[in-house]
């Protein structure tokens, strides 16, 4: 099975195409898994890392106003995995255990400045989304519902009716307070 | 602040947008609030698809493990995965785009529909989830039917009314679409959107003069 065009993999990920996502595993996981195992990790670590990297690609490239995807899919995944794995190891103060001499497919490609930046941006987008998620879950159920409906563009009057609130201004006042609280929880986690 | 929401959902006239952007330039706190709201809302709009992807990746990993262990039933697992694929491939992503600032939207902009989300948690097979899945993969005929059924239960849901109108526009039923858009012109929250789609419906009929007249109301 040859490699497809990068945008085909990206679109599969963006729209949740299970068959093609399986192909991504077959195509790219073995190389990353080999690299992780050579760098003090297990097969399971590699799989977890791979999943996280795929979500990071989704977070960076499958949203509103996302940048254009220009890299090789495999090289970007590799670069993201390496980025996350290094920071995880350094958290555990095991960075000295990484064998930098081990060269793998994609590794020289993954070292280009553009790709390093793209990988960093994807990891940052992923981290931000995780923190948004965590802080959102700390909000009250009512706050979560109001904000979710506002985000989808529901009308203030309809939100009021659905949630048993007085009128659209009550909804907007509540949404404003909830958003403020969400922002402060998010900032605290950063 | 209501203005932020109006701004983010394109419910401001060009003049209001300009004034609001000026205000944000001068007020760093407002700018920060706007920046947060923008990313927070974008996050919430993608939340369902993101959770679905996480779930799918977990299942893919689990399936891979089982395939490795029980190699003789590889075919069985592949066909199971194919059925899972059918069930899960409900989530299609359309590039969300905010209309360009300070100018009239083009018809191409108007055809970039924001994905529909009527329910917070997916899963249950309701008219709402059927409508979301169909609309977001561009099956406007099925979306229209599901939205009609949904509106029988919730006749006042303006978001559903708007998306029914869009589905009708996309399936060539312009007059019927305009009947649904008409009342939305009176809604503070939906006025701008309804005007845009009024224009699009006339454009689709080749009545560009009328379409332009509607577009000008956005100024």
List keywords for this structure.
heterodimer, A: 190 residues, mainly alpha, 2 domains, 9 helices, 74% helix, 0% strand, B: 219 residues, Serine Threonine Protein Phosphatase 5, Tetratricopeptide repeat, 11 helices, globular
Outline the structure in words.
The complex is a heterodimer of chains A (190) and B (219). Chain A has 190 residues and is an all-alpha fold. Chain A folds into 2 domains: 6-128; 138-189. Chain A is built from 9 helices and no strands. Chain A starts with 5 loop residues before the first helix and ends with a helix. Chain B has 219 residues and is an all-alpha fold. Chain B has a domain at 97-219: Tetratricopeptide repeat domain (Serine Threonine Protein Phosphatase 5, Tetratricopeptide repeat), CATH 1.25.40. Chain B is built from 11 helices and no strands. In chain B, helix 6 packs antiparallel against helix 7 and helix 8 runs parallel beside helix 10 (191-204). Chain B is globular and about 60 Å long. The model of chain B is unreliable at 90-102 (pLDDT under 50). Chains A and B meet through helix 1, helix 2, helix 3, helix 6 and helix 7 of A and helix 3 and helix 4 of B.
């Amino acid at each position: 099975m040859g490699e497809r065009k990068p945008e085909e993999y990206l679109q599969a990920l963006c729209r949740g195409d299970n068959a093609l996502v399986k192909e991504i595993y077959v195509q790219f996981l073995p190389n990353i898994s080999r690299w992780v195992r050579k760098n003090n990790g297990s097969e399971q670590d590699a799989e977890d890392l791979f999943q996280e990297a795929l979500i990071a690609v989704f977070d960076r490239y499958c949203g509103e106003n996302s940048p254009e995807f220009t890299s090789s899919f495999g090289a970007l995944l590799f670069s993201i995995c390496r980025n996350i794995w290094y920071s995880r190891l350094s958290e555990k103060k095991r960075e000295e255990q990484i064998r930098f001499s081990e060269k793998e497919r994609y590794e020289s490609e993954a070292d280009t400045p553009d790709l390093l930046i793209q990988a960093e941006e994807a990891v940052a987008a992923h981290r931000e989304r995780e923190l948004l998620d965590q802080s959102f879950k700390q909000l009250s159920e009512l706050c979560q519902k109001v904000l979710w409906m506002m985000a989808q563009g529901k009308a203030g009057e309809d939100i009021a009716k659905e949630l048993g609130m007085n009128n659209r201004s009550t909804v907007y006042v509540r949404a404003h307070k909830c958003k403020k609280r969400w922002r402060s929880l998010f900032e605290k986690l950063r | 602040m209501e203005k932020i929401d109006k701004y983010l959902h394109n419910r401001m006239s060009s003049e209001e947008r300009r004034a609001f952007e000026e205000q944000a330039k001068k007020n760093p706190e407002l700018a920060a609030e706007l920046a947060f709201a923008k990313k927070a809302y974008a996050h919430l709009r993608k939340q369902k698809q993101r959770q679905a992807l996480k779930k799918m990746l977990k299942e893919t990993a689990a399936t891979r493990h089982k395939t490795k262990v029980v190699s003789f039933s590889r075919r069985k697992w592949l066909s199971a995965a194919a059925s899972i694929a059918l069930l899960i491939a409900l989530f299609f992503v359309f590039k969300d785009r905010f209309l360009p600032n300070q100018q009239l939207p083009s018809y191409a902009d108007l055809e970039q529909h924001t994905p529909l989300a009527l329910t917070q948690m997916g899963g249950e097979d309701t008219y709402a989830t059927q409508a979301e899945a169909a609309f977001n993969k561009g099956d406007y005929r099925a979306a229209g039917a599901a939205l009609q059924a949904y509106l029988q239960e919730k006749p006042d849901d303006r978001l559903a009314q708007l998306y029914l109108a869009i589905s009708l526009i996309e399936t060539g039923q312009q007059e019927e679409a305009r009947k649904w858009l008409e009342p939305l012109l009176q809604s503070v929250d939906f006025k701008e959107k309804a005007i845009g789609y009024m224009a699009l419906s006339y454009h689709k009929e080749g009545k560009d003069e009328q379409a332009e007249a509607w577009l000008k109301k956005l100024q």
